[in-house]
Amino acid sequence: GAVVSQHPSRVICKSGTSVKIECRSLDFQATTMFWYRQFPKQSLMLMATSNEGSKATYEQGVEKDKFLINHASLTLSTLTVTSAHPEDSSFYICSATGTTNNEQFFGPGTRLTVL
Amino acid sequence: RKEVEQDPGPFNVPEGATVAFNCTYSNSASQSFFWYRQDCRKEPKLLMSVYSSGNEDGRFTAQLNRASQYISLLIRDSKLSDSATYLCVVNGGGGFKTIFGAGTRLFVKA
């Protein structure tokens, strides 16, 4: 299947700093990318959906000014957690789709720890 | 009612057992259905798509019942390596929204 990479895989930062996470589709053009968050022992929660060249669509309860999403090309989307706080510590996973059957290909995830 | 509901389990079964998971969804306009597998602290990976006619892949069989709005996953001859969380995924109609179930945890023991 298609490959999606995510960088970094793990990040530890101080409270108040901003963290950028990259999501890349390596061997296909991703028309749509999704950003999820998963807390321990909980389900994946969709944060936002982004289409290349347009503004992301955020799910209810997700602050767009805190979680900045940029999808500048068909192979790259970035999520920036601005002014991170300990409650933002979570596993962030991106996925991408470029096919017509809506199968999503997931990145390996980024584990964010905010001290 | 949740948009996608699954029994969280855990299901504890011996090796070689047959185990079945069900998942119900609320949006009758949903178009695509999938089962994903997620290992601990890893990303989800597609196990199989679910078609109206039902589909089988080795020891795994998935079925869709649109009238009752549920999908199922059957695992035969369970292996230790099948231990994971199985996520039911439903892609809604217009709007392209994908909803994940909370997952069903399976433990296969020797």
Descriptive notes:
Chain A is mainly beta and 115 residues long. In chain A, a hairpin with a 5-residue loop joins strand 5 and strand 6. In chain A, the strands form 2 sheets. In chain A, strands 2, 4, 5, 6, 9, 10 and 11 form a 7-stranded mixed beta sheet that branches. A 4-stranded antiparallel beta sheet of chain A has the order 1-3-8-7, with no helix packed on it. The model of chain A has no long low-confidence stretch (mean pLDDT 90). Chain A contains no helices and 11 strands. Chain B has 110 residues and is mainly beta. Chain B is built from no helices and 11 strands. Chain B has strands at 4-6, 11-14, 19-25, 32-38, 45-49, 55-57, 60-65, 70-75, 84-91, 98-100, 104-109. In chain B, the strands form 2 sheets. In chain B, strands 2, 4, 5, 9, 10 and 11 form a 6-stranded mixed beta sheet that branches. In chain B, strand 6 (55-57) and strand 7 (60-65) form a beta hairpin. In chain B, 34% of the residues are buried. Classes of the chains: A mainly beta (115), B mainly beta (110). At the A-B interface, strand 4 and strand 10 of A face strand 5, strand 9 and strand 10 of B.
Taking pLDDT < 50 over at least 5 consecutive residues as the criterion, the unreliable ranges of chain B are none
End-to-end separation of chain B in angstroms reads 37 Å
The computed structural class of chain B is: mainly beta
- Structural shape of chain A: globular
Strand content of chain A: over 45%
**Percentage of β-strand residues of chain B:** over 45%
Report the structural category of chain A: mainly beta
Mean pLDDT of chain A: 90
